[in-house]
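DATA CLASS: polypeptide
GOAL: derive structure tokens

***
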Amino acid sequence: MNPRLHRVGAAVAVALGVGMLAPMALAQTQPAAQPQQAPSQNQAAAHTNTGPAPTDAELQHFAQAAREVETIKQTAQPQIAQAKSAGDRTKLQKSAEQEMEAAVRSNDLSVQRYEQIAMVAQTDSKVRTKLIKLMQQPKPPTS
């Protein structure tokens, strides 16, 4: 699994502390039985780079992307867990990761900026509160 995607999921889950958001991120799509890797120094360094404060528009994009990522993850997890082989599991994981990255990008965010906003939400209660409110709003209609 892409460590970057796992890191985002974990960061957002901790940052927001909201049950529906816990698996939201470009998060772990592995079955629970597989062991997790310890964060590397590079991953730890990435956690400290939060970039500029997110704008209200970025927070709205983040909330929408997070909803889409959550939907992808909820769909992918059972399929991955039921995969007949390690090869099938890997293919399903990669496919889900690509879909999650596409969901982030389709909401006008880079994966890096998505991660940065997640990290800001961990440390800034005002940003966290705004995100929680945005996440609780009904999903905007699609065009």
